[in-house]
Design a protein that fits this description.
By secondary structure, the chain is mostly helical. It has 7 helices and no strands.
C-alpha cells in the first residue's frame, strides 16, 4: 500500500515542482504566471485543434519515453531517444515516398512503421556496440549520437532528397499516413492527432 502511494505521490510532486519552477521563471521576466498558465490552458482546452495538438505530441513523447524506460529497467540510460526518433522519422518518410501509390493504405503504413523501427533500433545499436566493445558509457554515446543523427538527417534532406530548386522532399504516398483521428471520430478537426496514440 505504501509503495502504491509513493508511486502516486512522486509524479504529482514532480508536476507541482515543475509548475512552481515555471512560475518562478515567468515571474523573473516580469510577467504574471497565473495569466500565462490561463493562456496555456485556453490554448490547449479551448479548441479541439489545441487538444489535438497535445494528443499528437503525447503519442510521440510516449514512444520516446518508452525508448528510455525499457533500457532503464536493465540499468541502461538511453539518452538518445531524440536521435533515434529523428532517424526513425527520416526512414519512415523516405519509405513512404518510395512506396508505389497502388499499395493499400494499411500495408504502406506498416512498411513505414517497420522502416522507422529498424532505423531507430539500428541507431541505438551503435551505442550498445560501443559499450560492449569499448566500455563507453551509454549516456555519453547516446547524447553524442543525438547530434550526429541531427546532422545526418539535415544533410541528407537538404542535399540528397530535396526536390531540385526547392526546400521540399518527395511527397509521401497518402496511404502511408497513419489515419487522423478526425477521419473516424470527427474530433480534433484540422489537427495532426492520429491513431498512433493507441
Amino acid at each position: 500500500m505504501l509503495q502504491k502511494t509513493k508511486q502516486l505521490i512522486t509524479p504529482a510532486l514532480s508536476i507541482l515542482l515543475a509548475f512552481l519552477a515555471s512560475a518562478a521563471i515567468i515571474s523573473l521576466t516580469g510577467r504574471d504566471p497565473l495569466m500565462i498558465f490561463q493562456k496555456m490552458s485556453m490554448a490547449i482546452f479551448g479548441s479541439q485543434y489545441g487538444l489535438g495538438q497535445v494528443i499528437f505530441r503525447l503519442g510521440t513523447l510516449t514512444l520516446v519515453g518508452l525508448a528510455v524506460a525499457v533500457p532503464y529497467r536493465l540499468r541502461l540510460f538511453n539518452i538518445g531517444g531524440e536521435g533515434q526518433l529523428q532517424m526513425g522519422a527520416f526512414a519512415a518518410a523516405m519509405a513512404g515516398s518510395f512506396i508505389p501509390e497502388f499499395y493499400p493504405g494499411p500495408a504502406a503504413s506498416f512498411l513505414c512503421i517497420l522502416a522507422a523501427m529498424a532505423a531507430g533500433g539500428c541507431w541505438a545499436l551503435f551505442a550498445g556496440a560501443l559499450k560492449i566493445r569499448f566500455g563507453i558509457n551509454e549516456v555519453i554515446s547516446t547524447i553524442m549520437l543525438n547530434f550526429i543523427a541531427q546532422g545526418i538527417t539535415g544533410y541528407l534532406l537538404t542535399y540528397h532528397f530535396a526536390l531540385p530548386s526547392t526546400v521540399h522532399t518527395p511527397s509521401v504516398v497518402p496511404g502511408a499516413f497513419i489515419p487522423p483521428l478526425e477521419s473516424f471520430s470527427g474530433l480534433f478537426a484540422g489537427s495532426p492527432a492520429n491513431a498512433s496514440i493507441f
